[in-house]
Structures are given as structure tokens and as C-alpha cells.
Design goal:
InterPro entries: Aim32/Apd1-like, Thioredoxin-like_sf. By secondary structure, the chain is an alpha/beta fold. Helices cover 24% and strands 13% of the residues. It is built from 9 helices and 12 strands. The strands form 2 sheets. A 7-stranded mixed β-sheet has the order 2-12-11-10-7-9-8, with helices on one face. The protein has a 5-stranded mixed β-sheet with strand order 3-1-4-5-6. The radius of gyration is 22 Å and the shape is globular. The two termini are 30 Å apart.
Length: 445
Amino acid sequence: MFKTLADKASSAVSSLRGSAAPSAVPSPAPSTPHSPAPLGNKHEDPGRIRQYAEMAKALQHDDIPVSHADCESCNIPCEYKDRPEGNGPTAQIGNAWDGKTYEEYVEDKYGNIEGMPDTVEQDWESDLPGSGGPPVGRVVVISTGKSNWLRDHVEEEEGLAHQINEVLQEQPNTEKKSKGGNPLDPSTYIKASAFPTPSSPFTKPVTQLPALYSSSMVSQSDDPTDQMTIVFPDWKVCLEVENSREGAQSLWDGALSGTLGRAGRLLQKDGEGVERRRSFVLPYRAIVLLCSHKNRDKRCHIAAGLLRPVLLDCLERNGVTVDEVGSSLANLDGPPLEELEATDAEREAEVGRRIENIESVQGGQGGEVGVFNISHLGGHRYAGVMLILFPSGAYLSYGRVSPHEIPRVVEETILQGKVVPGLIRSGTGLARPGAANKDMGFLSW
């Protein structure tokens, strides 16, 4: 997009790795609460577009599927060695949005979508990349049927999150999530997953404990007093989880322990007591988790309410069905994973086969996405914030998401498997070195 990018991108990426304060991304200068940030307070500000284009170069250098649309569709005059006239979209590498600016494209396809209102104050001064350390272990999303919780959701003693957290406190944990990142060094905010890809044998125990989130999902368990959990990157739902310390321990022993692969443990005690035939591969091509935790910070609560209807509309306009409560997790095809009697490698291969059969799992329109509200993600100063999970094991944490950015989230990340540079906080399992089909991005494995 810019001459410095075209001429110096490779050397800049190499020289900036490990640098605490790269020259291309200057440290914020002191400012009053409402003064403009050095790079601008909007995604479309020239300074931001320049940064996002440079980030896209760095991400591509690290084999991470990424959108180059910030460069390819901007209307800021730029200069290439072979196109010195540089006059916006028609002189760019490509036409990311049908030859239009992003604003024009959104208006034509989706109508008028506003940005985030001024009442949701966002931090535009600190670096977004690295602001939320990515988990390399499991993510556990628990049904509660609510969108707000106590300030610390695990302190709700009547909830399953409290019971699971009590079990986790007894487990060793040698891994810590890192925070802080250099926007031009993706290794500081995007990590490799500790888990193998779907279908691959599980060979190395995971030492980092699961990250726990309460969610708005409504349990689809047969017993109305039981809860259910989604487990990532296993891409499965565990139904019929008794809301007790014993039930939480059984869940840990059968599905969450770092010694277990995606298939989990075989059925114990013939399903008696707190043991259950309960684990099934999820039907979703992706899951979007919106932070709505009002008791932690009202900005996330407001932002989630603004993002959700736009997200649903954009997904549906692209032929994607949406599950907002978890109803698609009732009456799933079996047999349950606890009944798969085979070698460990064969059981993992069967989970991978079921994942491969999910509609639109490797891109394009169609299929189904789960959209749920969840408890605190961290970084509410960047509201709206969200997690996006994929069957491939890809995990993204996004921030500074306004309704106006939702079409990009849908079209580029969910449908194509590409990182949107201006929204990325952290990620896990995104790199695809030597991928045979680059068009599938990180949706493939």
C-alpha cells in the first residue's frame, strides 16, 4: 500500500522482532482523556490503516492467514514502484471489496451500520495486539442461561463454574499466559496450540489449565438441574454435568484433564452416579463468544447488545444459520464419545472424521454458528471484545469491534479463515505453513 511497505517490508519484519518499541508503531504520547490517539481513534484513520497494512505483512511472513483488505481497498493516495500515480482502490494490489472502499461496500450490501457510540469509551492509545494472552490449553464454556454474573463468575457458589474452579485449584499449573505484544512481531501475541490437529494422535500432556467462562447458553441436558459445557479445541459438548463438586470432578477426569485427547475417557462404572454418556462433537462451523459481563464493566454489556443483532444479520445474509441458546446441542448424532471402544489413536481419528463432516467447516457460505454471551474476557477498555473458535483448533480474541466491523468479522474471519489485523488481540493455532489450499485460511488443518 505504501512505498515503505513495498520496499522495506521484509527487512522491517526481521529487524523489529524482539524490539520493545518498533519505530513503525510509536509509543503513545501523553494525552488528555479525549485527545486523539497518535495513530487515530478510528479504524479508517490513515495512521491506523498504515499500521494494519504493516501488521498484515508481518502476519503473512509468519504463515498466518490474514486479510490485506486494509491496503487493497483504502482510498488514501499511495505509491508503488510500478504504479507511481497511486490514487486509491484502482491502483491497489487488488479490489478487496468489489473495487469499493469498505464503507461503500458495507452500505451497499448491509445498509447503514453505525460505529460504536461515544458512550462506549475505547482505548485507542495502547497496543491492542498482546492485550489478552492467548490460552494454549483448553477453553471451557459453561451453560447458565444468563448474560451477567457476579464480578468474578466463579464466586457464584450455586454455579457449575464455581465447582469446576474448585477442582482446577487442586491441579498443578506450570504454564502462565503472557501479556503484552509488539504489533509487528506476531510471535508475541499469536501462539501455537498445545493440541494436535483434529484426527491426529494425542501424544503430549497439556500443562496449562483450562480457561473457564460462564455463558448465556441454556443447558440441553435431560435433567434440568444438570448443566452442559463446550470444550475447545476438542470441539465437543459435554451434557448432563451434575452441578456439584462430584460432577465437576467427573468432568475433569473424563474430559478436561491435560492427559486426555479430544475423545476423552471411556465410560466409567457403566454410567452410574455422576458418570455419563454425554460427549458429542459440536455441529457448529464456528462459535462467537461476546463479552456481556455488566457487573465487570458496563462497556462490554452495552457493546454486546449492539454487536449481536448486526452479527446475526450478517451471518444470515451469508446463508449461515445461527444458534443463540444452544438448542442445536439437543439430540445430537451418536454414539457418544464415551462409547467409542478402540485404540486412543482410532478414537481421535473418529473425532476428526466427525469434525470433517460439519457443514461448511472449511469455508464458504452455509452451515451453523453458535453465538453466545460470556463472562469477562479481559480488556473491557477495548469493548466490544469477543472470542471466535473454530473446529480446526484456531482461536482468536478480537477487540475494538464496533457494529461497523462486523461484516469483516463474518466475511473475512468466519467465512474465509483470515485474521483482521486491526481487531486482533491474540490467537492460538493460526499458522498454516505450507498449506495446500491457502483459500481456506486457518479453517483447514
